[in-house]
Amino acid sequence: MWLLPAWALLSALGAGSAQLLFNVTDFVERTQCNKTVILPCCVTNLKENNTKVMFVTWKRQGKVIFSFDGEKNEFYRDQMVPSANLVSEANLPKGIASLTIKSAEAEAGNYSCQVTESNREGETRVELRNLTVVSCNEEGTPAPKEKCGSWFLLVERALIIALLFLVIILCSAQFIAIALKYEIVTQKKMAIIVAGIIFTVAAVVGTVLFVQDGYTAQNQAGLGLIVIPSVILVPLQYLMFQIVFDSLPQATYALIGLQILGYIIAVVGFALCVSACPPLHGSVVIAGLAIMAIASLLSLADIFIMGSRMKDHPRPGKAVEEPLNERQSYVICEKYTVVGTPWP
What we know:
single chain, alpha+beta, Immunoglobulin-like, 2 domains, six-stranded mixed sheet, 8 helices, rod-shaped
């Protein structure tokens, strides 16, 4: 009678030894910042620890998307996921059969990992989820809301765009004030207009690319078009000051220096943000643009103050030229009087 229980126990032990065991991970979350996705699959009870006796199969929603045959050293990849690969082939004998896929190719859903070692095998499952940040669908749609993410926080994006267009408005106001008060040489006028148009077009295109959801090359290019072309404002500001002043006061150089400082800070912030998701230094970009906006506001105030002080003169230089002309006339008149020649 003891033979039957012994056989059952041996059968159970034999069956247990043929089953590979895994560290179970229920789900993996992916954000818009992930360029790649790693799906974990770790076997805990390998015996032979030899790649040549192992076979790995990954499935998505029941369809094989990747497999590795250790004996033949052959890989299979579905055409929909050409980037699929083992995280480390060297660590496969240690039981690490995790899969890495480019985020763009990794659809959310259920994945399964099946590992075979000689005559032993096992399977584990993991769900890939999208970490939701911002709602994309409109309210009231019957279908479930699809969720997607943004590179910058909404407040940060709003501040960057608002400061950018504030700078454009302030620079435009400066040009209008100068054009109404002073005579501008045609070449300088055209240079200012062309530079302003280039900067505005770059700002609009950059804004359109920047506000899109996700962390892509388009978002990065958009932020670049917002920040980098802002260097145009420096020579533009200098040119407008030259129209108003014959000799630039120290205050104008200070304002131009403030403009340059803001630009440098914004570019440094851009360089720090473009390689990070989420961006850890978005405040640096905002600070740089804010300094540029302050410099533009102070420049506009300076132009208005100078314009109100000289209502009867086209530009400050004229205030010096007219007294000189009067003095020269007096000297000439005095000369004719001394010689005795009648004044015409």
